[in-house]
Give the backbone structure.
Amino acid sequence: MRRLLGWLKNLNWRHVAGYGALFAVLFFIFLYLTFPFNAIRDTIAKQIESRGNLRVIIDDISPFRLTGIRIKGLKLSDAADPTQVYLNLNEVRVRVRPTQLLLGRVWLDFDVYAYDGGAAGSYCKRGPVSDVALNFVGLRLAKYGMREVVRKFGSMDLDGMLSGQFELHYNPAVRRNNSGLLSLSVDKMKASHIVILNNKLPDLVFEPGKISFKMQNQAFSVDQFNLKSNNLEMTMTGRVTLADIFRNSRVFLNLRLKPSDEMESALGIIMMGVKQPDANGFYTISLNGTPGNMHTR
């Protein structure tokens, strides 16, 4: 016992502490580098697919810095028709703020690279309350694949640059305090090779425009929507009342269109069911229903 006490007394505790810290760091690095990220990839895909009729493909997932992950090649498509792609991201980086965990918050910072542009934002959750902030810039519409989106009604090539911001404060327990906004700026937007219900329409070259929506309680209302082109001017008012499942949300929108003579002639029979234009030349189309089952009048 005396020998043991003497040996402990003569130890260089600074060296012991240093070796202990080095072991802890190396052990952490070992766990980090050998973490089963493939299992995480499969879990993420299954979680997303379980929330809707989606097919998820993730090319690769790997560690990013010390508290994050990097996802390369994230694609969301229709489960029944994989050629209909809803989202195709080149790279996503997500990082956790460890200090926020000590305060009872989950705080994630993320960067997204897609469509020749990018986005950066954060997600914070404390209890039932969630806050999201996102800024995006330089997203090229031609990279999105609009033809697949509108192919049930026709075809169209869309190009231009999209930038904007999105903010959301959401508390499912106290919905009257929910708030948010979505603000979009479009520049150099052009729609070409437009075919709607077998009618070929003239190309549209748009002036720079802005679109914005505001959220209060459970409804997104149109705050600003005015797009003007050489052959068509569009304005919109109304709201979308959100449901817990988005496809069950209710849509109440009034779309006002002012076509040029060339556009009106090309629309032909499509405009026959629309009421006569007002004194300023605008036709009004009311859209009601759910996102998947819309009615016009």
Observations:
- Residues 36-96 form one domain.
- The chain has a mean pLDDT of 81.
- The chain is about 20% helix and 50% strand.
